[in-house]
From TrEMBL:
Residues 76-159 form a coiled coil. One of its GO terms (cellular component) is condensed nuclear chromosome. It is found in: Nucleus. One of its GO terms (biological process) is meiotic strand invasion involved in reciprocal meiotic recombination. It comes from the Eukaryota. This is Homologous-pairing protein 2 winged helix domain-containing protein. Belongs to the HOP2 family. Residues 4-64 form the Homologous-pairing protein 2 winged helix domain. Pfam families: WHD_TBPIP. Keywords: Coiled coil, DNA recombination, Meiosis, Nucleus. Signal peptide: none annotated. It comes from Varroa destructor (Honeybee mite). GO terms for molecular function: double-stranded DNA binding; recombinase activator activity.
Length: 205
């Protein structure tokens, strides 16, 4: 069974990149305890198998590049392929990030759920107000139409009364001429004999 020191060294050699102690502890998924990891890191540094660098209050550990064996042409070719694949993956993720950022900007310009609900309620209230206005206009329109119709009827009646009065006057003048010419009967008897009906002026008011 490999020792914890071998586990730590193998991990740093395989990854070949700098890590903090906490990063190594988390990435090894508790295969090595914290106290054992600190002990192993110090031992590997003393053995010159890994390098320790201090940045502020944090220490970074990585494999000693001088201790690494030279890569074979096959390994270099494989690493080249891996680099190309990683670069392609990076560009793909970068494009996805740009698309997500653009979508976020669009969503930020849109209404939130609460704003949509508030806006919907406001529109419903406005719709109810408009419906009431339309109903009021329809009622007023009907009243206006009735009033207009009434005015038209009154105008027709007025013209009719004026025409009847004019004709009544003409008829009376004719009857008076007949009576003045020596007709022996009264106007009432004459109109009854002729089959005429002379309305009283009150009917035309």
């Amino acid at each position: 069974m490999a020792s914890t020191e071998d586990i730590v060294l193998t991990y740093l050699l395989d990854q070949n990149r700098p890590y903090s102690m906490n990063d190594i502890l988390q990435n090894l998924r508790q295969a090595v305890g914290k106290a054992a990891l600190l002990r192993d890191l110090n031992a590997l540094v003393e053995s010159d198998l890994i390098i320790e660098k201090t940045y502020g209050k944090q220490k970074i550990y990585y494999a000693n590049q001088e201790k690494l064996a030279d890569a074979t042409p096959e390994q270099l070719a494989e690493m080249e392929i891996q680099c190309i694949n990683q670069e392609s993956l990076y560009k793909e993720k970068q494009q996805e990030t740009l698309e997500l950022q653009a979508r976020i900007k669009v969503l930020q310009k849109q209404f939130s759920t609460k704003e949509c609900l508030d806006r919907t309620e406001a529109l419903l209230r406005e719709n109810e107000q408009l419906q009431r206005k339309i109903q009021k206009l329809q009622i007023n329109g009907a009243e206006n139409n009735n009033q207009q119709h009434r005015l038209q009827l009154e105008e027709s009646r007025r013209r009719g009364v004026m025409e009847l009065q004019r004709r009544r006057k003409i008829a009376e003048n004719i009857i008076n001429r007949v009576l003045d010419s020596g007709y022996p009967e009264t106007m009432k008897e004459l109109t009854e004999e002729l089959g005429l009906e002379i309305d009283s002026p009150a009917k035309f008011s």
